[in-house]
From TrEMBL:
InterPro entries: Amidase, Amidase_CS, Amidase_dom, AS_sf, GatA
Class in the EC hierarchy, top level: ligase
The protein's name in its UniProt record: Glutamyl-tRNA(Gln) amidotransferase subunit A
Keywords: ATP-binding, Ligase, Nucleotide-binding, Protein biosynthesis, Transferase
Originating gene: gatA
Annotated source species: Simplicispira metamorpha
Pfam families assigned to the protein according to its UniProt record, in alphabetical order: Amidase
Recorded family membership: Belongs to the amidase family. GatA subfamily.
Top-level taxon in the UniProt lineage: Bacteria
Summary of the function given for this chain in its UniProt record: Allows the formation of correctly charged Gln-tRNA(Gln) through the transamidation of misacylated Glu-tRNA(Gln) in organisms which lack glutaminyl-tRNA synthetase. The reaction takes place in the presence of glutamine and ATP through an activated gamma-phospho-Glu-tRNA(Gln).
GO cellular component: glutamyl-tRNA(Gln) amidotransferase complex
GO molecular-function terms, A-Z: ATP binding; glutaminyl-tRNA synthase (glutamine-hydrolyzing) activity; transferase activity
Quaternary structure (record): Heterotrimer of A, B and C subunits.
Enzyme Commission code: 6.3.5.7
PANTHER family found in the cross-reference section: GLUTAMYL-TRNA(GLN) AMIDOTRANSFERASE SUBUNIT A, TRANSAMIDASE
Length: 497
């Protein structure tokens, strides 16, 4: 590219894909540029694995397909994957000591689908251990360039957290270390770090994207989604990621892939946006509220109508989630016992002792906390009192949304009660992290699509995200609303570096 053009890392996914197809730049040159960026900004702790040889081989293959006229929609576009998706060419740790050194013999479905669209894998991105966390301070794996585990740092202020658990993904996109990244959202782990880092991220309807090859945390909640700078980019990526996978994921929905960018430019005239009163209570920081209110005023200018609604069981989403998710985690993580793969204790006297020592050594404090909580609520005498009741309330939360959608087309509000806090600020108080999920958990429990859209800046110049929630399969409508807001504002174009 000539010196008059913007640097490659400032191009959107859409612009980069176009430049590659038109052969203004090669996939090899693009991959080399982003690998250099990743090395240059190691201090952020975003990447946990790079494989330059594999990345450049994929880039050369992409160039060959472009030359042959068989390019996919994402041909040659670099992407990085949250280290919760298994990959053949890169190690997979899920941020845990338990999986250090593990190399998967296959790729996750999401990784495969993006590769089939032509995307080139840059590397694996840091995350909270087994996707359990709201700050990306729980990783037990050393980032690239580090000798020991370290928290991922928010590129807007290195003393602040990036959000979790997809913190590495959010940082890589925000700092322009990758044009886009995959993330996973169990209780808000795409939306919250997207908000904290000033990027766009979307969690589709549960079952839209295959969970095959995603290291499981809570199977009825985990969902993959893209993280990028704009709604347009997310629409392109989500179109490639979604689709049925019945042979390998029993929770995959039997719905064909679709073009989520088809209605990006539709008018918002008459769009009814529900404003839940429970999202705007005393716990919402004034700086976050100001940014969200300003975004809602933009929607009114675009022709949308704001409608007051109620989601009365919002507060109950925290206890419900922190019963159901740990219960499922205690089951899913039982496979990590030191027998077939992963970490195994060096010294033990018998099989039971090996189990105990392996799991004590391999799991971090937050993972142990959730396993113990989950085992407790599933135990005899407590299953009915806790787990069963939580499932009943979960259904009520889902019903609250359906009642609200009688009066509105989309729901809008804050992603989190505050902007990103300082690293270590919550210390040994896990409840503080849990409470930060109050606005993202309800949609996750209901299986609804939701996204975070940059909406401005709050205290200390830290980003604020606007959350948009749609009814089942309303991803295209969500992306349309987000795209129109981004046409009217420039928050998604601002960069910390």
């Amino acid at each position: 590219m000539t010196s008059s053009n913007p640097p490659l890392h400032d191009l959107s996914v859409a612009a980069l894909a176009s430049a590659l197809r038109e052969r203004h730049v090669s996939a090899l040159e693009t991959a080399q540029h982003f690998l250099a960026r990743a090395q240059q900004h190691q201090a952020l702790g975003a990447y946990v694995a790079l494989n330059e040889e594999a990345t450049l081989a994929q880039a050369r293959a992409a160039d060959a397909r472009i030359a042959a006229g068989t390019a996919g929609v994402l041909e040659g576009v670099p992407i990085a994957h949250k280290d919760i998706f298994v990959t053949r060419d890169f190690p997979t740790t899920a941020g845990s000591k338990m999986l250090v050194g593990y190399q998967s013999p296959f790729d996750a479905t999401v990784v495969t689908q993006l590769a089939q669209a032509g995307a080139v894998t840059l590397g694996k991105l840091n995350c909270d251990e087994f996707a359990m966390g709201s700050a990306n301070e729980n990783s037990a794996v050393a980032p690239v360039g580090f000798d020991a585990p370290a928290p991922v740092r928010n590129p807007w202020n290195h003393d602040h957290v990036p959000g979790g658990s997809s913190g590495g993904s959010a940082v890589a996109v925000a700092a322009r270390l990758a044009p886009a990244a995959t993330g996973t959202d169990t209780g808000g782990s795409i939306r919250q770090p997207a908000s904290f880092c000033g990027i766009t991220g979307i969690k589709p309807t549960y079952g839209r994207a295959s969970r095959y090859g995603m290291v499981a945390y809570a199977s009825s909640l985990d969902q993959a989604g893209p993280m990028a700078r704009s709604a347009e980019d997310c629409a392109i990526l989500l179109s490639a990621m979604c689709g049925p996978d019945p042979d390998r994921d029993s929770t995959s929905l039997d719905m064909p892939a679709e073009d989520f960018s088809r209605s990006l430019n539709d008018s918002l005239d008459g769009l009814r946006i529900g404003i839940p009163k429970e999202f705007f209570g005393d716990g919402l920081a004034s700086d976050v509220r100001a940014a969200v209110d300003a975004a809602l005023r933009e929607y009114e200018k675009l022709g949308a109508k704001l409608v007051p609604i109620s989601l009365p069981r919002t507060e109950l989403s925290i206890p419900v989630y922190y019963i159901i998710a740990p219960a499922e985690a205690s089951s899913n993580l039982s496979r990590f016992d030191g027998v077939k793969f992963g970490h195994r204790a060096n010294n033990f006297t018998d099989l039971e002792d090996m189990y105990k020592k392996t799991r004590a050594e391999g799991f971090g404090a937050e993972v142990k906390r959730r396993i113990m909580t989950g085992a407790y609520v599933l135990s005899h005498g407590y299953y009915d009192a806790y787990y069963l009741q939580a499932q009943k309330v979960r259904r009520m939360i889902a019903n609250d949304f359906q009642n609200a959608f009688q009066d509105c087309d989309l729901i809008a509000g804050p992603v989190a009660p505050t902007v990103a806090w300082k690293i270590g600020e919550h210390g040994n108080d896990p409840l503080a992290d849990y409470l930060a999920d109050i606005f993202t958990l309800p949609a996750s429990l209901a299986g609804l699509p939701g996204m975070s859209v940059p909406a401005g800046f709050g205290a200390g110049g830290m980003p604020v995200g606007l959350q948009l929630i749609g009814n089942y399969f309303a991803e295209a409508r969500l992306l349309n609303a987000a795209h129109r807001l981004q046409q009217a504002t420039d928050f998604h174009l601002r960069t910390p570096l």
